[in-house]
Amino acid sequence: EAQVTQNPRYLITVTGKKLTVTCSQNMNHEYMSWYRQDPGLGLRQIYYSMNVEVTDKGDVPEGYKVSRKEKRNFPLILESPSPNQTSLYFCASGSRGRNTEAFFGQGTRLTVV
Amino acid sequence: AQSVAQPEDQVNVAEGNPLTVKCTYSVSGNPYLFWYVQYPNRGLQFLLKYITGDNLVKGSYGFEAEFNKSQTSFHLKKPSALVSDSALYFCAVRDPNFGNEKLTFGTGTRLTIIP
Predict the structure, then answer these.
(1) CA nearest B91 in A: which residue?
(2) Do B94 and A98 touch (CB under 8 A)?
(3) What is the DSSP letter of A73?
(4) pLDDT per residue as tens digits for the range B16-49
(5) Do the chains contact at B49 and A101, CB–CB below 8 Å?
(6) How deeply is B92 buried, as exposed, middle or buried, from its count of CB atoms within 10 A (0-12, 13-18, 19+)?
(7) Is the confidence at residue B98, as pLDDT, over 70?
(8) Among A36, B19, B39, B92, fewest CB within 10 Å belongs to which?
(9) How far apart are CA A110 and CA A113, in angstroms?
(10) For residue A66, how far is the Cα from the chain centroid?
(11) Which of B35, A20, B37, A95 shows the shortest CA–CA distance to A6?
């Protein structure tokens, strides 16, 4: 089954404790991206990647890191999480081409206390 | 810069009635437009898209959307609402001339179908 898989689905952590949210897709997509969803703000792009070893900042990259060592994986790293990073996070992937739709993972609800 | 507006945070519709969820956009050229739906505790699911051609686009679950270039709108519609259509709906735009293939999303509209 074609899918984007995120782990974990839920995470509660403390301020400053490094964490990684994993994202994997099995559709051989070139494009992958991370979004955060906050009430009243919709989805905002954090980082994206057009291919292996190619990453770039989205609209809200501060406090986040990503890597793309393999085509299928695109982990999101929070080196020192803060409470304002409490949010619902989505990973997405898609084929190259601006007329193609993106496929989303089921989301990771992160709470930083 | 590309942007999307969903003017209604909440839309309530009686079951069996037609529904409309509004979306307007702003891009520098001809847009690529998308609708996604989010059910509780689920990721976003693609519903339909407008790329070019016929202004009326049909998608999943009986939904359709009409592209109106003069009004820069892409409203989502369904002739007869079901209770199972209750969800959060997002409109998104992609500028075909912009480099990173980013989807820009609206703030979402919560659709509630009343039995």
Answers:
(1) A42
(2) yes
(3) B
(4) 999 999 999 998 888 899 999 999 888 899 999 9
(5) yes
(6) buried
(7) no
(8) B39
(9) 10
(10) 8
(11) A20
Place of tokens 């609708």: B35
A88 touches chain B (CB under 8 A): no
A107 Cβ contact list (under 8 Å, min separation 6): A6, A9, A37, A88, A89, A90, B41, B42, B43
Q: Which of A4, A42, A56 sits opposite B90 (nearest CB)?
A: A42
Which segments of chain A have a pLDDT < 50?
Answer: none
Tokens 């039995």 label which residue? B115
Q: Are B96 and B38 in contact (CB under 8 A)?
A: no
Instruction: Please state, in angstroms and rounded to a whole number, the distance separating the CA atoms of residues A53 and B23.
Output: 36
CA pair distance A15, A62, nearest whole angstrom: 15
